[in-house]
Amino acid sequence: MLTGSNHNNPATAQCKNSICDNQQEDGGWTDVEETIWSLAFLRHIDHNNLEPLKKGIKWLSNQKNKDGGWGRTNRDISRIPVTGLLLHLLPELSGSKAVNWLKNEWRKDIQGNTRLTYKGGFFLMGLSASGVTIDDCPLIKETYSYLSDEQNEDGGFGPWKDHPIGSDPWSTGIVLLGLLSYPELVKREVIEKAVNWLAENQLPNGLWPYHYIEEGSAYAYWGLVGALKFLSRESS
């Protein structure tokens, strides 16, 4: 992930060059999600290299659907995970239309029969990065209550409580990131239980078992780092 990278590391420089070499003439990469991550990485390691960032931001802006959200491509429907991630990592692309789409879409989901925890996490991530406060949106508190209630007995999170696959690192990482978006609403015991689950289920090689092992582990690590920082601040 983007935390703690060494900008002068040869591997980091090689990765940067590879990413820049794969940027298309139109400014994007293979799809919206790859473009989001590529731009976030480039900004993190070299915020002075503005040209690839400008081209990529312009390309992403052109991929936005008419309803205000983003899908995986401009031929895809708008999706909460894609839109929430984009607004979190590239908040300059936010605006009232994107925020309103995210609110309205998650409101429909949380009131429906199939409510997915990771969508709630991405909703909180996108809204907080867009500067939406708790007072601006009552749905934020409702989402915190919902996510806290969805925590499994083992401390992790799945797509929903007692899902057949049980807790998984991808959902757990994303829910942690969402909950940490508004620290004043966080219940410490929820974070501690999730951290313990991640610690207990980490493989000897540092990854977590998941069907997309790199992606699942990346979100698990991202959420874990954020959670440990939060707990450290709370204890000081």
Structure description:
With 236 residues, this protein is mainly α. The protein has a domain at 1-63. The chain contains ten helices and no strands. α6 packs parallel to α8. The radius of gyration is 18 Å and the shape is globular. The two termini are 26 Å apart. The model has no long low-confidence stretch (mean pLDDT 94).
Write a brief caption for the model.
With 236 residues, the protein is mainly α.
Can you give keywords for this protein?
single chain, about 240 residues, mainly alpha, about 60% helix, globular
For the secondary structure, the number of strands is 0
Give a quick account of the main beta sheet: strands, pairing sense, barrel closure: none
Enumerate how many helices there are, as a single number. 10
Please indicate the percent range of residues in DSSP E strands (runs of 2 or more): under 5%
- Helix fraction by DSSP (H/I, runs of at least 4): 55-70%
Shape descriptor: globular
Order of helices and strands: HHHHHHHHHH
Low-confidence stretches: none
Could you tell me how far the N terminus lies from the C terminus, measured between alpha carbons in angstroms?
Answer: 26 Å
Structural class: mainly alpha
The Cα radius of gyration reads 18 Å
* Mean of pLDDT: 94
Topology:
Layout: H1 10-21, H2 32-45, H3 50-63, H4 80-89, H5 96-110, H6 117-129, H7 139-149, H8 169-179, H9 188-201, H10 213-235
Helix pairs in contact: 1-2, 2-3, 2-4, 4-6, 5-6, 6-7, 6-8, 8-9, 8-10, 9-10
